[in-house]
Design brief:
Blueprint lengths: L4 E11 L4 E6 L12 E6 L2 E13 L2 E6 L5 H5 L5 E5 L13 H4 L3 E4 L4 E9 L6 E5 L4 E5 L5 E5 L4 E4 L9
Parallel strand pairs: 7-12
Antiparallel strand pairs: 1-2, 1-6, 2-5, 3-4, 3-6, 4-5, 7-8, 8-9, 9-10, 11-12
Length: 170
């Protein structure tokens, strides 16, 4: 196993009285939970591996029952743990689709070659995602549209953008 993990969800609370936990998915593909047998849980410095007994979907949440968790008290102790998988288990994405974790810390440049800053976050807006770029003097919010994001080069951790006029002045 590598030292690189990918977050796919966060435990929000217990569910029912059998030791189940309610999970808010942080992946765009919640069905991917159905393909895993074991996950890693992390909160602060606490890190553990748990085997999944079963998974079901309820409204907008994923309900997970771990073999080692059999009561409300045990399930409640898992609140606010991140659910991680080994990076080697992540899905291959279609061309021109990227994992946010792979984009964070990329250097962002204008088409002219001028350095804009470092990508610090991608905000999901239910529409076009927003790239948050920390420049030397200010932070920029750039829509992650095909018109503005010209090139993403993960190998060199570099993103080339061509923002619409005036957006950098906001």
């Amino acid at each position: 196993m590598s030292d690189n993990y990918l977050e796919i969800g966060v435990i929000t609370r217990f569910q029912g009285n059998k030791g189940e936990v309610r999970v808010k998915a942080t992946t765009d593909i919640p069905e991917r939970f159905l393909d895993i047998d074991t996950v890693y849980l992390k909160r602060d410095d606490d890190f553990k591996e748990l085997e999944i007994e079963y998974i079901r979907f309820h409204k907008q949440f994923i309900i997970i029952k771990f073999f080692a968790v059999n009561s409300i008290d045990e399930a409640e102790e898992l609140k606010n743990y991140q659910i991680l998988i080994d990076e080697s288990e992540k899905y291959l994405l279609p061309e021109d689709n990227f994992y946010v974790s792979d984009l964070i810390d990329c250097e962002v440049y204008l088409e002219s070659g001028k350095y804009l800053g470092k990508l610090i976050d991608v905000v999901d807006t239910s529409g076009t995602d927003i790239f948050l770029v920390k420049g030397q003097d200010k932070e920029y919010m750039l829509p992650a549209s095909r018109e503005m994001i010209l090139k993403i080069d993960l190998e060199n951790q570099k993103i080339i953008v061509d923002p619409i006029p005036g957006i950098l002045d906001l």
